[in-house]
Amino acid sequence: MKAVRLRAASAAFTMIELVIAMAVAATLFAIALPSYARYIAEQRLLNEARRLSEAIMLARSEAVKRNRHVVICAATPGVPCGDVGHWHGGWVMFEDADGNAEPDAGDPGVLVEPAAAEGVTMRGNRPVADYLRFDYIGQPRMASGALQMGTIEVCKSGLRGWRVVLANTGRTRLDRTPGPCP
């Protein structure tokens, strides 16, 4: 009887198979990388919108807890509050003892937040462009006593932004902008 020899199957790749596999992987990586980078940028923008929304809710909570007016206002370095017109420079929160919606020497500070990430803009419509003031029951009221509601748009050029919407109850919600930011 003759012995039959079986040839062992090779477990290695040929050079051509290896080059083709690497080319497919590089192509998939090149397609996925821009989408991933955009996803990360959109998540950072959402984080900025959430950070602002949470600070607004904290101001409301502090007003109820302290049974006093609490103000959160847009700030820039050197200008703690005032007619800033945007929120991306950061914000300051304080207890408003005299009800004028401006930080005075006797007003206890609650929170100071730094500026938004590079390239992010935060602009509010007229009622909420500069400050938000909550009364002792958590309703947003301007210094004049008028009801304060509005929207702060959080944007970065080329991305769909977010809107932080302040309702008449003092609560916030996040909505997407209809199109990309300019």
Descriptive account of the structure:
- By secondary structure, this protein is of the alpha+beta class.
- Helices cover 29% and strands 26% of the residues.
- It has 1 helix and 8 strands; from the N terminus they run αββββββββ.
- It has one helix at residues 15-66; strands spanning 70-74, 91-95, 109-113, 120-124, 131-134, 150-156, 160-166, 172-180.
- It starts with 14 loop residues before the first helix and ends with a strand.
Produce a short descriptive summary:
The protein is of the alpha+beta class.
In CATH terms, what is the fold-level topology? minor pseudopilin epsh fold
Biggest sheet, spatial arrangement of strands: 3-2-1-5
What is the CATH class?
Answer: Alpha Beta
State Rg. Answer: 27 Å
Largest sheet data: 4 strands, antiparallel
- What is the tally of helical segments? 1
Cα shape:
elongated
Helix percentage: 25-40%
The number of domains: 1
Strand-helix topology:
Layout lengths: L14 H52 L3 E5 L16 E5 L13 E5 L6 E5 L6 E4 L15 E7 L3 E7 L5 E9 L2
Looking at this protein, list some descriptive labels.
182 residues, 29% helix, 8 strands, four-stranded antiparallel sheet, minor pseudopilin epsh fold, alpha+beta, elongated
